[in-house]
Amino acid sequence: MKAAPENLERVLFTAEQVAARIAEVAAEISAKYEGRDLKLIGVLKGSVFFLTALARALTIPVKIDFLAISSFGGNSPGQTAGMVRIAKDLDDPIHDEDVLLVEDIVDTGFTTRYLLQTLAGRGPRSLGICTLLDRSIRRIVQVPVDFRCFEIPDRFVVGCGLDFEQLYRNLDYIAVLNPEALGPDKIEDKR
Ligand code: IMP
Ligand code: MG
């Protein structure tokens, strides 16, 4: 697929809105963790853009580490949703650290719940969740989201790290993908 402009239906949040909201959430996080060091854990690849923007806006000392996951089983008929495994683990232990899991989007919640359970087993001092986007209308398993930048409607979105077939991650705004251009079944398979 080519990243044609007609594949984007409309802009949901402009670059200015995204930057302003990240600054607000960063201020909340800096206040909450005042006097402590915080480790941000990013989930490759989707959360990289948000994590770096967030980290630059924080006023407390931060460390960063990344993990990668692969999901198998989607929302298509006949598949079991929510099977996730770690494809690349963190470089360092998180024992006794204040940890914030940084996500691009919390959708069904399966990915986040799996990561929370896995990380909690490693004995962090605290473990929070911060997400750029929250599509809580599609939640299947409940997860405690501590910080969210935006709640979004039930539409497939791209930009600020979120992809469709690995494209559009580098957009500095969030856009709704045009379902006619791409086919609704195809979108269902991607999230
Ligand atoms: P969950 O396990 O259903 O919460 O799925 C979360 C993952 O699905 C995210 O980390 C994204 O990689 C992907 N995803 C869900 N919705 C979207 C979307 O609208 N655009 C791009 N990726 C999405
Ligand atoms: Mg993806």
Describe the protein's topology.
Layout: E1 8-13, H1 15-32, E2 38-44, H2 48-57, E3 62-72, E4 83-88, E5 98-106, H3 110-120, E6 126-134, E7 147-151, E8 157-158, E9 174-177, H4 179-182, H5 184-190
Parallel strand pairs: 2-3, 2-5, 5-6, 6-7
Antiparallel strand pairs: 1-9, 3-4, 8-9
Helix pairs in contact: 1-2
The protein binds inosinic acid and magnesium ion.
Strand order of the largest sheet: 4-3-2-5-6-7
Which cofactors or ions or other ligands sit in this model? inosinic acid, magnesium ion
State the helical fraction: 25-40%
The major β-sheet equals:
6 strands, mixed
Shape label: globular
Question: Could you tell me how far the N terminus lies from the C terminus, measured between alpha carbons in angstroms?
Answer: 17 Å
Element order, helices and strands?
EHEHEEEHEEEEHH
Beta-strand residue percentage = 25-35%
Task: State the helix count.
Answer: 5
Number of strands: 9
Low-confidence stretches: 76-80
